[in-house]
Amino acid sequence: MVTGAGAGIGEAIAKRVASGGGRVLVADLNAAGAQRVANLINDESPGAATYLAGDVSDEAVLRRIIDRAETELGPVDLFFANAGIAGGLGLDSSDEQWQQALDVNVLAHVRAARLIVPKWLERGSGYFVSTASAAGLLTQIGSAPYAVSKHAAVGFAEWLSVTYGNRGVGVSCLCPMGVKTALLESGFEADDKNAGLAARAVKSAGAVLEPDDVAELVIAAIAERRFLILPHPQVLEFYKYKGADYDRWLAGMRRFQDALVASESS
C-alpha cells in the first residue's frame, strides 16, 4: 500500500514495487491521480494495481483502503506512509493549518500503524516506510508546521523500530531534501514570502532529485532493512554537525536564512 501515490514520490514507489513483481494499492486524496497511476501500472502488469481515493489521515478511510488491499491483492506486506502536505508557514499559521499538517504528516502514520502492525505481529513480518523529510532531522526554513510535523514523523518511525523491530516489523524513514514534486513546486511556492523562502531554502541546499531515483533508493534500503534513507548524503553531514554543536548549527541556519532573504531583495 502506498499513500499519496497519485503523483511524485508515491507514484514512483508504487510503479517500482509493481515492476519488481509486487501488487500495489494506490491511495491518494486525488481520485483522478490515483486512478491514473493504477492504470499505468496495470498497462504494464495487468492486475497488479488497484486504487482508492480518500483522506488517509482519516482512520475510517485507512480501514477501507486496507480492506480493499487485502480483498483484491492479498495480505499487506509493505505500507508506505507517503502522503504529505506543506501546512502553514510562520507564526501566522492557523490552528487549522497546524492540525492538518499534524494529521497528514504524522497522525496518518500513527493511525495506519495502529491498524496494520497488529496483523504483522501475528504473521511475524511486515514493513513500514515513513516518508518524512530532511526537515525532520534538521528543520524547514519558512514553515513551522512542516518542520515540526516532520520531526514528529521521524520520532514515530524511530519508536516503531525500537518497539517492534525485534518482532518481525521492519521500519525505514525517508528523509530527502529537494525532490521534483507538486509539494516543492506549489506547496512551498504560494504567494507568500515565507513560502518562497521555504522553496528557495530547499532548492539551494542541494540537487533537486527525480522521484524515480528516490524510489530506487527506497527499495534498496528495504532490501538492506536500513532505517534512515537519505537520498541527499549531505543531510547526514548536516545532522552530525547539528548534534556536535547545536548553537553553532543554529547560528549557521540563521546565516543561511539571512542570505536567502538578501538574495530575494537584491
Quick summary:
With 266 residues, the protein is of the alpha/beta class. It has one domain (2-234): Rossmann fold (3-Layer(aba) Sandwich), CATH 3.40.50.720. The chain contains 10 helices and 7 strands.
Verbal overview:
- It is a single chain.
- This protein is of the alpha/beta class and 266 residues long.
- It has one domain (2-234): Rossmann fold (3-Layer(aba) Sandwich).
- It is 58% helix and 11% strand.
- The protein has helices at 8-19, 31-44, 59-72, 95-123, 144-164, 182-187, 193-205, 211-224, 234-244, 246-265, and strands at 2-3, 24-28, 49-53, 78-81, 126-131, 169-174, 228-229.
- Strands 4-5-6-7 form a four-stranded parallel beta sheet. Strands 1-2-3 form a three-stranded parallel beta sheet, sandwiched between helices.
- Helix 5 (144-164) links the parallel strand 5 (126-131) and strand 6 (169-174).
- Helix 9 crosses helix 10 (246-265).
- The N and C termini lie far apart (46 Å).
- The mean pLDDT is 92.
Number of domains: 1
Beta-strand residue percentage: 5-15%
Quick one: biggest sheet? 4 strands, parallel
Computed CA radius of gyration, to the nearest angstrom: 18 Å
Full CATH superfamily name: NAD(P)-binding Rossmann-like Domain
Structural class, judged by helices and strands? alpha/beta
In DSSP terms (H or I, runs of 4 or more residues), the helix count works out at: 10
Mean pLDDT over the full residue set: 92
The counted number of beta strands is 7
Helix content: 55-70%
For this structure, what is the CATH class? Answer: Alpha Beta
Write the element-wise H/E pattern from the N-terminal end onward.
Answer: EHEHEHEHEHEHHHEHH
Spatially, the strands of the biggest sheet line up as 4-5-6-7
Shape, please? globular
Q: Which fold name fills CATH's third level, the topology?
A: Rossmann fold
Detail the poorly predicted runs.
none
Please state the second-level CATH architecture: 3-Layer(aba) Sandwich
Distance between the termini: 46 Å
